[in-house]
């Protein structure tokens, strides 16, 4: 069975719902408890090209680490074989991140953007400062939180075959995970405004088909040689080969408000990777989907989530979100059955379609209270299963 690991970025907020730059202090507490890295330790590791050690299969060992802004903490699960393990890991590390934040007078919330206006504060460190100097407002202005799923692959040949075959389905994952309707104190009109902000980075977004590992690595080398992408960690493709572990990393999702939705995402990504690998081994060619159409599909997914039409990857035409999500389930169902994930994933999809995404829940909280700070407080509760 393919292993899976999840990385999440969380907002650090004060009791009034405002993101606060207390992550360095919280991470210092976590480091003393053996649960994470301080900003200084992380910066030294980044400069040396060192990543947290894993078991070589599906990503890093569990940890709490800094992100680009001091109002963020990133967590990483251990390598997991069962989705139940993923759920337990996420609950544990959300709880540990919250405990560290609570010790310095804050909480953590799984929000992909801040509902209340905020002035982001950059995390100290050479690499982060270089990013700010190089990319200006693209790096200075955003405060966004995503969720990245790592799934193990046998080698780069299988990994590239997977990348070439999952491209069309990734916008559906964006729609299901949408959790960022508010920006600068206003409703953005998008279910995932994080996905719009993230698209500003020069290396972000969908990719064309690569065909071979040599072609993939040549593209990455050319991006680095351009002098625009600073290092391989800034190759922000929607899905990429991990530069550190033998995994495919899918990066299109907002951080999930509920643990259950993050587990659903992990199950769908693992199902997509396994389905793509089977198609490759069977000699079925990768779908010939234009990158331009993928950009349109990604925009549509970020705009409406699952509340309106999505672009159906089979036809390139609009279709009701529930119909497109059902097509995704049909596509990965054999893989879900073989991994034992079918019941959990089908239930998770039904729940999202019934109650809505994190974006829908945030908007309902605002409609009930008229108070964006109350939305953040409700998100803190939902982050920890309440």
Automatic annotation (TrEMBL):
Keywords: ATP-binding, Ligase, Nucleotide-binding. NCBIfam families: gshA_cyan_rel (TIGR02050), PRK13517.1-1 (NF010041). ATP-dependent carboxylate-amine ligase which exhibits weak glutamate--cysteine ligase activity. Residues 33-61 are annotated as: Disordered. PANTHER family: GLUTAMATE--CYSTEINE LIGASE 2-RELATED. The keyword Transport does not apply. The keyword Transmembrane does not apply. GO terms for biological process: modified amino acid biosynthetic process. HAMAP family: Glu_cys_ligase_2 (MF_01609). Belongs to the glutamate--cysteine ligase type 2 family. YbdK subfamily. It comes from Modestobacter versicolor. This is Putative glutamate--cysteine ligase 2. It catalyses: L-cysteine + L-glutamate + ATP = gamma-L-glutamyl-L-cysteine + ADP + phosphate + H(+). Residues 33-46 have a biased composition (Basic and acidic residues).
């Amino acid at each position: 069975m393919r292993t899976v690991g999840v990385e999440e970025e969380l907002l650090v907020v004060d009791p009034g719902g405002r993101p606060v730059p207390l992550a360095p202090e919280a991470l210092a507490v976590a480091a003393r408890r053996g649960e994470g890295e301080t900003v200084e330790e992380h910066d030294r590791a980044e400069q040396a090209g060192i990543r947290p050690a894993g078991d070589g299969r599906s990503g890093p060992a569990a940890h709490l680490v800094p992100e680009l802004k001091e109002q963020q903490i990133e967590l990483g699960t251990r390598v997991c074989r069962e989705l139940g393990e993923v759920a337990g890991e996420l609950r544990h590390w959300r709880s540990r991140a919250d405990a560290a934040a609570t010790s310095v007078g804050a909480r953590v919330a799984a929000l992909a953007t801040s509902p209340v206006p905020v002035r982001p504060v950059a995390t100290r460190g050479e690499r982060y400062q270089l990013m700010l100097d190089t990319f200006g407002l693209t790096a200075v202005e955003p405060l966004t939180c995503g969720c990245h799923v790592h799934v193990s692959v046998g080698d780069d040949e299988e990994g590239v075959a997977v990348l070439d075959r999952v491209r069309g389905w990734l916008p559906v994952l964006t729609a299901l995970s949408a959790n960022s309707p508010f920006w600068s104190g206003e409703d953005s009109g998008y279910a995932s405004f994080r996905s719009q902000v993230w698209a500003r980075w020069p290396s972000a977004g969908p990719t064309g088909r690569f065909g071979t590992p040599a072609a993939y690595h040549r593209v990455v080398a050319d991006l680095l040689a351009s002098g625009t992408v600073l290092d391989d960690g800034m190759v922000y493709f929607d899905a990429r080969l991990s530069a550190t572990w033998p995994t495919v990393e899918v990066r299109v999702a907002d951080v999930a408000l509920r643990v259950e939705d993050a587990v659903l995402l992990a199950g769908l990504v693992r199902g997509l990777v396994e389905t793509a690998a089977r198609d490759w081994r069977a000699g079925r060619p990768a779908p010939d989907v234009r990158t331009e159409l993928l950009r349109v599909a990604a925009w549509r997914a970020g705009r409406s989530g699952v509340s309106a039409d999505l672009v159906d990857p089979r036809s390139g035409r609009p279709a009701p979100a529930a119909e497109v999500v059902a097509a995704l389930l049909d596509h990965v169902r054999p893989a879900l059955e073989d991994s034992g994930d079918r019941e959990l994933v089908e239930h998770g999809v039904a729940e999202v379609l019934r109650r809505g995404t994190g974006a829908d829940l945030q908007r309902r909280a605002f409609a009930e209270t008229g108070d964006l700070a109350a939305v953040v407080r409700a998100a803190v509760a939902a982050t920890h299963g309440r």
